[in-house]
Amino acid sequence: MARFDLSDAEWGLIRPLLPNKPRGVARVNDRRVINGIFYVLRTGSPWRDLPERYGPYTTVYNRFNRWAKAGVWVKIFETLAAKSPHSMAFIDSSIIRAHQHAAGGKKGAKITPSAVLVAD
After folding, report:
1. How far apart (Å, rounded) are the C-alpha atoms in residues 54 and 38?
2. Contact 60, 33 (CB under 8 A)
3. Rounded to whole angstroms, how far apart are CA atoms 12 and 15?
4. Alpha helices, H only, the chain
5. What is the pLDDT of residue 105?
6. C-alpha–C-alpha distance, residues 51 and 115, integer Å
7. Which residues, other chains included, contact 75 with Cβ-Cβ below 8 Å and sequence gap of 6+?
8. Which of 67, 68, 82, 55 is nearest to 19 (CA)?
9. Do residues 31 and 8 make contact, with C-beta atoms less than 8 angstroms apart?
10. I want to staple 72 with a disulfide (CB 3.0 to 4.6 A). Which of 14, 26, 34, 67 is the partner?
């Protein structure tokens, strides 16, 4: 088990929420696939750079997309949020003050659409 892989307790919460439609080919372990998905999301690395311990990167990528289209990730999020209502208190509650020069542009500067530039 790698450093950030799911614990048994975390896996116990997520496992019943995953679709389980057996097909002709034996499935790659769902826990291993989820750990691979979380690895890519956490590190920001390309799918092709997924370590071999998580299985084929194509399987991990395809399952991520399939589950996203089926609404599995939303169901997982809602279930985990319901199990820990206090964790939701800090989502989007930060206030970050922008530096006075953060806007970068001159006041009153006009933006010319690129279509006008091409037409001239």
Report:
1. 10
2. yes
3. 6
4. 8-14, 30-43, 57-70, 72-83, 114-119
5. 59
6. 45
7. 17
8. 67
9. no
10. 67
User: For 65-104, how does the pLDDT look when each residue is reduced to its tens digit (9 = 90+)?
Assistant: 999 999 999 998 888 888 776 665 555 555 666 666 666 6
| Model-wide pTM > 0.90 | no
pLDDT in tens, 101-112: 666 656 665 665
Tokens of 12: 């116990």
Domain ranges of the chain: 8-87
Which amino acid makes up residue 39?
Y
Mean pLDDT across the stretch 41-66? 93
- Burial per residue of 22-50, b for 16 or more beta-carbon CB atoms within 10 angstroms, e otherwise: eeeeeeeebbbbbbbbebbeeeeeeeeeb
Mean pLDDT (the chain) is 79
Q: What is the rounded CA–CA span in Å between residue 54 and residue 35?
A: 7
The token pair at 114 is: 């690129």
